[in-house]
């Protein structure tokens, strides 16, 4: 069994590795600090499972899921993210992820999710299962931010967190011009012109603390 952990926080990677070693005695672990390094590792070796974060410098975890599914469609990806399920879980599952776990979850929840994914099944919490059911049945009305691309949603959250274009550029490893373009697209799609309006929307929908 070989598990690759892709996360830009070294302490979190080491914590996950220690937890997995404790519960899976025969596991071999690898680590990558971003999506680019993670994809290179996937291409270079055969893995049983990839555990990936969403928010990383450069390409996001959602981008990584797409990349992995393109080159190794049978390789399962379990997302472990600091973002609440309502923000990214549906997007991750639609892209082919086998499960989504919040970093705030207890250790036994993570272990359960890993075991379930390794058995060939998907892991979703009860809340996420209800969210999925609502989305499939059409009972849940879509919000404006659901029209945004994965990267646009990420930029929206950073704008609402008070970051400037320059700071977002540094955080996501994108040019300021590219971030400004995302900002314009977000405003156009959502019909909100100012950062204040975008921030109010994000706070009202629980996209930021």
Offer a concise description of the structure.
The chain has 209 residues and is α/β, with parallel strands linked by helices. 55% of the residues lie in helices and 11% in strands.
List the helices and strands and how they pair.
Layout: E1 2-6, H1 10-23, E2 28-32, H2 35-44, E3 49-52, H3 61-71, E4 77-81, H4 85-95, E5 99-102, H5 107-118, H6 126-137, H7 150-160, H8 165-172, H9 176-190, H10 195-204
Parallel strand pairs: 1-2, 1-3, 3-4, 4-5
Helix pairs in contact: 2-3, 4-6, 7-9, 7-10, 8-9
Shape: globular
Strand order of the largest sheet: 2-1-3-4-5
Biggest beta sheet attributes: 5 strands, parallel
Q: What does the average pLDDT come to?
A: 87
The CATH class of the largest domain, by name, is: Alpha Beta
Give an overview in words:
The protein has about 210 residues and is an alpha/beta fold. The chain folds into two domains: about 1-135, Response regulator (Rossmann fold, 3-Layer(aba) Sandwich), CATH 3.40.50.2300; about 145-205, Winged helix-like DNA-binding domain superfamily/Winged helix DNA-binding domain (Arc Repressor Mutant, subunit A, Orthogonal Bundle), CATH 1.10.10. It is about 55% helix and about 10% strand. The chain is built from ten helices and five strands; from the N terminus they run E-H-E-H-E-H-E-H-E-H-H-H-H-H-H. Helix 3 (about 60-70) links the parallel strand 3 and strand 4. Helix 2 (about 35-45) runs parallel beside helix 3 and helix 4 packs across helix 6 (about 125-135). The longest helix has 15 residues, at about 175-190. The radius of gyration is 17 Å and the shape is globular.
């Amino acid at each position: 069994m070989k598990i690759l952990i892709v996360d830009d926080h070294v302490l979190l990677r080491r914590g996950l590795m220690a937890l997995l070693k404790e519960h899976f005695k025969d596991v071999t672990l690898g680590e990558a600090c971003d999506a680019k390094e993670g994809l290179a590792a996937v291409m270079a070796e055969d893995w049983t499972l990839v555990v990936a974060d969403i928010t990383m410098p450069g390409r996001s975890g959602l981008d990584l899921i797409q990349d992995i599914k393109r080159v190794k469609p049978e390789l399962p990806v379990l997302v472990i993210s600091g973002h609440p399920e309502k923000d990214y879980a549906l997007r991750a599952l639609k892209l082919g992820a086998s499960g989504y776990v919040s970093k705030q979850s207890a250790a036994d929840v993570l272990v359960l999710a890993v075991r379930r994914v390794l058995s060939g099944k998907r892991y979703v919490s009860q809340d996420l299962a209800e969210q999925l059911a609502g989305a499939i049945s059409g009972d849940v009305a879509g919000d404006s931010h659901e029209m945004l691309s994965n990267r646009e949603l990420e930029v929206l959250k950073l704008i609402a967190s008070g970051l400037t274009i320059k700071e977002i550029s540094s955080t996501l490893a994108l040019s300021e011009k590219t971030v400004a373009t995302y900002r314009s697209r977000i405003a156009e799609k959502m019909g909100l012109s100012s950062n204040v309006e975008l921030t109010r929307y994000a706070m009202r929908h629980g996209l930021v603390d």
